[in-house]
Amino acid sequence: MRSKTDTIINSDHSRNNVWSMFDQIAHRYDFLNHSLSLGQDILWRRRVSKYISGKTFSTFLDIATGTGDQLIRIVNKVNTIQSAVGVDMSRNMLNIGLKKIAKRNIQNRVALVQGDALNLPIYSDSVELITISFGIRNVIDVSKSLDEMFRVMKTEGMLIILEFSIPQNTLFRCFYLFYLRNILPIIGSFISGNKKAYTYLNKTIETFPYGNEFCKIMKQAGFTKITAKPLTFGIATIYCASK
Ligand SMILES: C[S@@+](CC[C@H](N)C(=O)[O-])C[C@H]1O[C@@H](n2cnc3c(N)ncnc32)[C@H](O)[C@@H]1O
């Protein structure tokens, strides 16, 4: 029997790579996320779902879905969603997500697929709502990934990107960068047992374009109605756009 998600998953697509670092820290990922962000990540995800409030999307794609927190929150909030797909390269992250989905008994509306944000295993013009939370920073080619989002999105669809950014206030920025460079890698390495992953985290946050600079990259991919909303003094930003 065909599942509802078959309407948007192109299962002929094959995956080329695995991102092994996330495979290694998957078992500690959720705990570290909540503790290192002092619970802020939960509030930021909630803010993402507020953007969708009152909308009646039926197809939804969460890219770099990881353990599925953003995906599950939105599926629970928007009951018009019939077909939700989470794509990620890390099998271990997806396996944790699968358990959460089974626990909530939403597997008839949700599928998790191992796949690459640079070559989405999704049909063109098939998705109404796309989200990517803390994922775009990790892809090798940001513009190509945005091109892929544009390809799979239906006209007048909605894209929401949640990503780390750097606070503008000088004092707060100094404090934050100290935490990012000196404290976070120690706690992250200790709990996850993976030093590389948490040194990598601060490097990618500090070098990733944010605010207007990132809006320009989204515009180049063809997106319109682009907005950027800084959260928690600019530690994270929500970008919203349409096709
Ligand atoms: C920081 S985690 C974010 C997970 C989840 N979205 C969240 O909000 O917790 C980044 C995720 O991006 C995935 N990832 C990295 N590169 C990817 C790619 N090219 N395609 C798909 N997923 C990718 C990793 O496997 C990892 O699960």
Helix and strand arrangement:
Elements: H1 20-36, H2 40-50, E1 59-63, H3 69-77, E2 83-88, H4 91-104, E3 110-114, E4 127-133, H5 142-152, E5 153-164, H6 170-192, H7 195-207, H8 212-220, E6 224-231, E7 236-242
Parallel strand pairs: 1-2, 1-4, 2-3, 4-5
Antiparallel strand pairs: 5-7, 6-7
Helix pairs in contact: 1-4, 1-6, 2-3, 6-7
S-adenosylmethionine binds next to helix 1, helix 3 and strand 2.
What does this structure look like?
The chain is an alpha/beta fold and 243 residues long. It has one domain: Rossmann fold. It is 44% helix and 21% strand. It is built from eight helices and seven strands, in the order ααβαβαββαβαααββ. A seven-stranded mixed β-sheet has the order 3-2-1-4-5-7-6, sandwiched between helices. α5 links the parallel β4 and β5. α1 crosses α6. It is globular and about 45 Å long. 38% of the residues are buried. About 4% of the residues have low confidence. Bound molecules: S-adenosylmethionine. The site of S-adenosylmethionine has 21 residues, from α1, α3 and β2.
